[in-house]
Fold:
Amino acid sequence: MHDAIEVENLKVRYRSKKGKMVDAVQGLSFAVSPGEVVGFLGPNGAGKSSTLKALMGFVRPAEGRCEVFGLAAGSLEAKKRIGYLPEVAMYYPYLTPIETLFLYGELQGLRGRALKEEAHRLLELVGLKGSEKKLNKSLSKGMLQRVGIAQSLLGSPDLLILDEVTSGLDPVGRKELRHLLKERQKAGATLFFSSHELAEVDMLCDRILLINNGRLVEERLMAPLKDELRNYSIVFSGSAVLHDLTQEIESLADGQIRARFSAKEQLVEAISRLQTSGAKLLDVVSQEGSLEQYFIETIEGAA
Amino acid sequence: MKFRVYKALARGVFLESLRRKDLWVVAILGFLILMGASALGFFGVQGLQVFVKDLAVTVLGAFSTIVAILTSTRMLPEEIKQRTLYPLLSRPITRLDLLIGKLVGSILVTWMSFLILAALTALALFGFGVSFELIMLQYIVAKMMGLALVCAFGLTLSIYMTPAAASTTGFIFTFGSALIIRGLTSGYEHAGPGMQFLFKFLNAVLPQFTLFDLGGRAANVGWAPVPLWVMGFLLGYWLLYSSGLVAIAWTRFQRKAI
Structure:
C-alpha cells in the first residue's frame, strides 16, 4: 500500500524579483501514511507553502520526488484524490458560494443532482446555510475561508491538503472546523495541513513535521511529545531530599514547599521519597506543556 | 468530459463579467451610439447612408475590439493575482483545459458585447431607413471570428507579459494591423533578398486581423456578399491561427510556477 504522501529529497527553487535563484525547499523528505493527521509547521518563509504547491503540481521541483498515493504529484489521477485549500483563499467575487461550489464540483467531475445536493450539504456543514446566494465579495474573511473549506471537501477526497486552515476563522469556526476534520479522519481521510495555530495542531494532529529554511528540523509523534512537554509539581510540608531530582524548589507560606519536575519518573521518585521521609504530600499537579515554547526553542535551536 | 470543463469555466467567466457590469457598459455605449445616430437623423442626414453605416461599423468594431483585448488580457493575470487559480488547478484538469476554458469564456463575453452593440446599431440604422443586406450578416459573422482571434491573441500575450504590456501590445497589433501589414508589404518591395524573406516571414506569422473586417464592404449600399469560400477561408484561418496561439500560450503556461 502506498503512502498518502511521499516526498523525497524535494528541492523547490524560485527566481527572486532581483533575478537570483532562491531555494525555498532544500532536500526535504517525509512520508504521511493513509489516515494520519499531520501538522506541517514552521515559521513564515520556512517553505511550507512551497512544499504544498509542489504536492499539488503548481511548481515543478528542481530536484527530488513528490508522490500522492503512489501517483506523481500534480497528475490528474493524483488530483482526483486531493482536496486542497490554498493559503489566503480567494474566490470569484461576483459568484455566490453555491455557484463557486458548482464550478469546482463540475471540474471535479461531479454533476447534476449529486453535485447540487453535495454543494448544499457542504455549505450547511461549514455554516454557510442562508448565505448560499450572497456574492462572495460581500462575505467576510472567515466566511470566505468556509467557502474554501467547503470546496476542498467536494467529492469526499482521500487526502486533504490545507494551507493555513484556520486563517480568518473565529473560535466558534475553529471548533466547528476541528469537528469537521475529525469527522473526515474518521471516514478514513488523510489530513496534511500547515498552520500557525499551535492549539489546533495540538488538538488535531497525530504527528508534526517542523521545517525551517526549507529543511526538516524535527518530526515528532504528538502523544510522546505531549508527555515530554508535560510538567508536574507537588506541594508538601516537612523535609525530603529532592535536589538531585529538580532544581525548581520554592518555599511557600506556612512552611509549605513546591517542587517542579519535567519527567513523570522524577515525580514518582519524589513522592516515594516524601513517603519514606514522613513528609506530608499536600498537592500533585500535572500541567500540559507549551507547544509554542517547544516550537520556538526548536526553531531557534535549528537556526 | 472536456466539454463540461470548458463549459463550467466559460460560464464562470461569463457570470462574473455580467455581474461586474462589463456588458452593461457596452449596452450603455450602444445606447449612446443609438442616441448619436438619432441626433444625426434629427439634423437631416438620412440620405448619407454610406457615411452612417461606415460610422456605425467603425464604432462597433472599435468598441468590441477594446472589450476583446481587455477581457482576454486581464483574465489569467487576475486569476494569479487574486489566487483564484489555485482551487481551479487543484481539480483534475490540465493547464491546457484551463486555457481553453478561459478563452471560450472571453470569446463568449466579447461576442455578447458585440451582439448587443450590433443589435443597437442595427436598430439605429433601421431608424435611418437603411435596409439589411446579406453583406451585413457576413460582416457580423466575420467580425465574430476576428474577435475570437483577438481573444486568443490577448490571452497568449497575457501569459508572456504583464497585463498592461499585453493590453498595449494587443491594441497596437489589432488597431495597427492594417498599417503593419501595409508597412511590411511596402518594405518587401524595396528590400534585398534577406530582408524580403524576413518581411515575408513576418507577414505570414503576424495575425491578419484586417482579413476579418468586412466593414468597408458592408458600409456601401448594394454591394454583393462575399463568396462562401472566403467565409470558409476565414473560418479556417481563425481556427488554425487560434490553435497556434493557444499552443504558444500553453508552452509557457504549462511550465509557469504559480
In short: The longest strand of chain A covers residues 21-32. Chain A touches chain B through 36 residues (CB under 8 Å). The mean pLDDT of chain A is 88.
